[in-house]
C-alpha cells in the first residue's frame, strides 16, 4: 500500500515551470532517495511534502487523505542545517517533542512527568550515541553529532514519514559513513517511510530501497519543468555489497 | 608586514586603549592650569581640587534646606525614572515585537504604523506629554518609553523574522502549536537579543531622561546640571557628567554579564 501518493503535481513560479506533471507513489516502509542536479526541483518536491510549499496544480495524499496545508507531526524532517534548537541542550532538544505533546499551555513538563519524559529522552540519546553529550548545547557539538541529534529529535515525535533534506551533505566522509549506518539502523528498527533528497548518488543507493532521478529535459527552457527520468529499485543484495565495500 | 596584519601584544594593547583617556585628562589639566595661572578664580575649567570640593558639598554634605545628600537624591530620582521607563518600554516591546514578528496578520496591521510612529521625534512631543500628563513623573517616564520602545519593537520584529524558517517548520513537525512555538522556540531565543537591543537603547534613554529633567523637574541628575549651569558651576557639571557616564557604562557591563550568565548558549549559536 502506498503511504504517499503524488498525483499530477506541477509547481510553477511565475513563468518558470519547476516540476511538470509529477506522479509518484511511495510505499509504506520504503526508503526513497531523490537525486538530481542542483536546481532540478528535488528540494521543491520535498518542501511540498512537508507543506512548506503548496503545489500549483495536482495533489498529494498521505494515507489517502490530502496533505494539510501546514507542517504536521505526521511528517518529521531533518534539514541540512538549523534542524535543532540552539537554546536547548541536547537533552532539552529531545525532550521537547514529548513536552509539546503533553503540556499544551506551558510546553514544559514538571515533576514526575518530567522525570519519566527525561528517562525516555535519555534512552533515545543512548540509542543514537549521544549519551555523554546530553547537557551540551548544539553549538558545542560537531556537525555529525548535531545531525544525530536532529534524527533523534524527529523520531521522538513518532512521525509517519521522515523527510530528509540533504541531511548529511555538510559532513566529512568519515562522519557521513557513521551516520549512514545509524540512519539505516533507525529505519530498519522503526520501518518508517523515509524520503531523502540528496545530490550524493552513492549515498542515495547505499541507503535507499528506491532511487528517483529528477531532471529537467531542457534545462534552459523555463516552460519545461523537471520530471522523473529514472525510477530505480535497489535490491538489498546489491546494497549489502555496497555497504560492505 | 602589512599594517592590516599587525596586532598589538597584550601589554601594548592595554597601553593603546588607555592612551586616549590619559591624553584627554592630561589635555584638560594643562588647559585648566593655564587658565588658573592667568586667573586663580577661573570657573570655566575647574581644577581637580575645585571639583573635589564641589563634590564634597554635593555628595557628602547634607543640604542645608532639605537635609538630603543632593547627589544621592538626584541619582536615585534619575535612576528610578530611567528604570521605570525602560522596564515599561521593554515589557511592551517584547510582547508587541514577538507577536507582530510571528503572526502575519498582526504584521500587516502594525508594521507600517510602527515604522511611521518611530519617525516621530520624541522630544518634539514632550510638550504634549507635559500638557497631558502634567510635569510630574508620568511625563518623564512616558518620554523614555516613547523614545525607546519603537526601536526595540522594530529590532525584535526583525530578529524574529530573521529566525531560520527551518526552525519554525521543525517545531511544527514536532507538533507545536503557535502558542507553544512562541513560548518554547521564539521567546527563549529572543530574550538574549532583547538584552542587546536594551543595551543599544540605554544611550537614547539617558538623552530623554536628561532632557525631560532639564525642562521640568525638582531633582535628578539632568535637573541639577541644568540648574547649576546658571552659575557657571563647571565644578559640579563635569563630575556629574562623569558620574552619568560611569552609571551608563556600569549598566551596559551588567547587561553584558547577565546575557553571558543566563544565556550560555547564545554566543555559540550566534557564531554558527
Please provide a written account of the structure.
The complex is a heterodimer of chains A (245) and B (272). Chain A has helices spanning 42-49, 90-102, 111-127, 143-156, 173-190, 201-207, 236-244, and strands at residues 2-13, 16-27, 31-35, 57-62, 65-66, 75-78, 161-165, 193-197, 210-215, 227-233. Chain A is an alpha/beta fold and 245 residues long. Chain A has 2 domains: 1-74 and 165-245, P-loop containing nucleotide triphosphate hydrolases (Rossmann fold); 82-158, no CATH class. Chain A has a 6-stranded mixed sheet, with helices on both faces. In chain A, α4 (143-156) runs parallel beside α5. The radius of gyration of chain A is 19 Å and the shape is globular. Residues 241-245 of chain A have low confidence and may be disordered. Chain B is an all-alpha fold and 272 residues long. Chain B has 2 domains: 3-38; 48-271, MetI-like (MetI-like fold, Orthogonal Bundle). Chain B has 11 helices and no strands. Chain B has helices at 10-38, 48-60, 70-102, 104-117, 126-133, 137-162, 165-173, 178-215, 221-228, 234-262, 266-271. The longest helix of chain B is centred in the C-terminal third of the chain and has 38 residues, at 178-215. Chain B is globular and about 80 Å long. Chain B starts with 9 loop residues before the first helix and ends with a helix. The mean pLDDT of chain B is 94. At the A-B interface, β6, α2 and α4 of A face α7, α8 and α11 of B.
